[in-house]
Structure formats: structure tokens, C-alpha cells
């Protein structure tokens, strides 16, 4: 007898099957979906919450009569009983992570966090991207420790996306100017993952003091420059491992580690698994991933 589609059920109908979750949030689905070309649906209603993170390609999601184009790094959100749709743009690939969850009868301040928003921002290269990938990997593994880790990762995603949703837009010209400089710093770090942070160079590039950068970077992006460098290196290492023929030693060098053992220790410390285990967890036969050719 085929297993029921837990993501399509009413929350109370999933509890017996989700008995390995001892308390909410209950996660009924966490997987990577590689949409066929020209794939899509409309008019769907779920009875649970759904978060989506776009890994690659471009698509269009709609809630009611409002539609938005989404691409790599975008996070979007559906609430229970909202009529919604999603499709790959014509001729485009669309790969995303979907997490469906609920809180059963337990109250949870979702609207206090997300204020009715559906598009939650772009998080390419940020910790939220890592959280989604780790959630999918750990969801596939049995054990109470992995279930607790999945719940912690989901709550971290909700917390970090809510910060961006609630950030007031800067009004003063100087703050707008400094925001642009912080984005320049973020891009500089992301484009030089093979280097350690060069504080004098970053200060010259941005025209900001290092102490100011540390404080405002965390306020703006939810992480310090050093933490962002680490997570960006992890994210890039995962991408290279899944999409390139490079050896793990070559991957380590590209993300700033000449010593593969030091790289391996860092990766396992931050993710809870080795890079080999991460790749294996995503290539199980029943959820095989076909990544887009980035070299095309």
C-alpha cells in the first residue's frame, strides 16, 4: 500500500505518521524538486504551511491574483488554505527545496513573524541557504537527534527570514549609501572565498571602519562578516561537490583551505556531517537530483 502524501493532509491526520517528532513543529515534507521543463500547477490549496527555497532556474509563484518571478536564493511562503500556484518559466529549469510543516493545535505566532508576507527575501550565499540544505539532508536520516536538528533548522529559517521581512527600509541618504557599501563588502567576501578576510582592503573598498562594518553587517544580514565567510565557503563547497568533477582537495583550495583535513574538520563542525555524507544523503535513488549545467 503506497504511503499517504502527508503534505496534502490536514495537520491532525499526519500525527500518527510523524510520531518521531515528539512536539511541534511537525515537518511532513522536506525535499528537493527538479521541475520538468514547462511544469506548473495552479489553484492548489494545502492545509499546512509551506516554505520554498529556489536552488536554480526561474519560476513564477502566485497567491490569489498576485504573481511574482522567483530565482536562485529566493524564499517564498504559503499559508494553510491559501489558493496558490507555481510554474517553471517557459524554457527554463526550476529547482527548489520545499518544506511543508504545521504546529498541530499548538499556537504559534506566524503572523507576528511574517506579517502576511509571501516573498520572504533573497538569501543566496547566506546562512538561510545552508539551513534549507541541511534540513533536507537531516530529514532523510532517522533518529531523534536528526528530527530535533530539522526542527531547529526550520525555526532558524523562520527567525532569520522574519528579520528581513521586518527590517524598516532606511530613509536617510547616508544610511542608503552605507547599505550599498555593506552589500559591496558582502559581494567582495563572496567573490574571494579562497582568501582570508583582509581588513585594510575591505575598509579601503567600502570607506567604512571595520568596527562599523561588523556591527552593521550583522544588523543587515543577520551574521558577522567572518560567519558569512564560513557559511559562504560551506555553500560553495557543496555546490562544487555536486556540480563539478573537482576532487575534495581542489574544492578545499577553492574555498580557502590548503589543508584538506582542516577543511574537513570545519565542514563537519558546522554541518554535523562530512562532505561525502552530505553528497550521499542527497543522491538517494528515490530523490535523485539533476542539477542544471552551470557551464552552459
TrEMBL record:
Residues 183-281 form the HTH araC/xylS-type domain. Coiled coil: none annotated. Pfam families: AraC_binding (PF02311), HTH_18 (PF12833). InterPro entries: AraC-bd, Homeodomain-like_sf, HTH-like, HTH_AraC, HTH_AraC-typ_CS, RmlC-like_jellyroll. GO terms for molecular function: DNA-binding transcription factor activity; sequence-specific DNA binding. SMART domains: HTH_ARAC. Keywords: DNA-binding, Transcription, Transcription regulation. This is AraC family transcriptional regulator.
Amino acid at each position: 500500500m503506497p504511503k499517504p502524501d502527508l503534505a496534502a493532509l490536514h495537520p491532525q491526520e499526519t500525527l500518527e505518521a510523524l510520531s518521531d517528532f515528539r512536539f511541534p513543529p511537525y515537518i511532513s515534507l522536506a525535499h528537493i524538486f527538479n521541475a520538468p521543463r514547462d511544469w506548473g500547477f495552479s489553484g492548489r490549496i494545502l492545509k499546512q504551511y509551506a516554505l520554498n527555497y529556489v536552488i536554480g532556474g526561474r519560476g513564477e509563484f502566485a497567491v490569489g491574483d498576485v504573481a511574482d518571478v522567483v530565482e536562485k536564493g529566493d524564499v517564498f511562503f504559503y499559508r494553510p488554505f491559501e489558493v496558490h500556484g507555481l510554474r517553471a518559466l517557459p524554457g527554463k529549469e526550476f529547482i527548489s527545496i520545499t518544506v511543508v510543516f504545521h504546529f498541530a493545535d499548538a499556537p504559534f505566532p506566524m503572523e507576528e513573524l511574517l506579517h502576511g508576507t509571501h516573498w520572504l527575501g533573497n538569501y543566496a550565499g547566506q546562512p538561510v541557504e545552508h539551513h534549507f540544505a541541511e534540513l533536507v539532508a537531516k530529514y532523510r536520516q532517522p533518529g531523534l537527534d536528526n528530527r530535533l536538528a530539522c526542527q531547529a533548522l526550520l525555526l532558524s529559517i523562520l527567525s532569520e527570514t522574519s528579520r528581513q521581512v521586518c527590517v524598516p527600509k532606511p530613509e536617510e541618504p547616508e544610511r542608503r549609501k552605507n547599505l550599498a557599501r555593506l552589500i559591496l563588502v558582502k559581494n567582495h567576501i563572496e567573490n574571494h572565498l579562497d582568501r582570508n578576510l583582509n581588513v585594510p582592503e575591505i575598509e579601503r573598498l567600502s570607506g567604512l571602519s571595520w568596527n562599523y562594518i561588523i556591527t552593521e553587517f550583522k544588523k543587515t544580514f543577520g551574521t558577522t562578516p567572518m560567519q558569512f565567510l564560513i557559511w559562504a565557503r560551506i555553500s560553495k563547497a557543496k555546490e562544487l561537490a555536486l556540480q563539478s568533477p573537482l576532487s575534495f582537495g581542489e574544492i578545499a583550495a577553492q574555498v580557502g583551505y590548503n589543508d584538506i583535513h582542516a577543511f574537513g574538520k570545519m565542514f563537519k563542525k558546522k554541518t554535523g556531517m562530512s562532505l561525502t555524507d552530505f553528497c550521499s544523503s542527497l543522491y538517494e535513488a528515490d530523490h535523485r537530483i539533476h542539477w542544471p549545467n552551470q557551464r552552459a
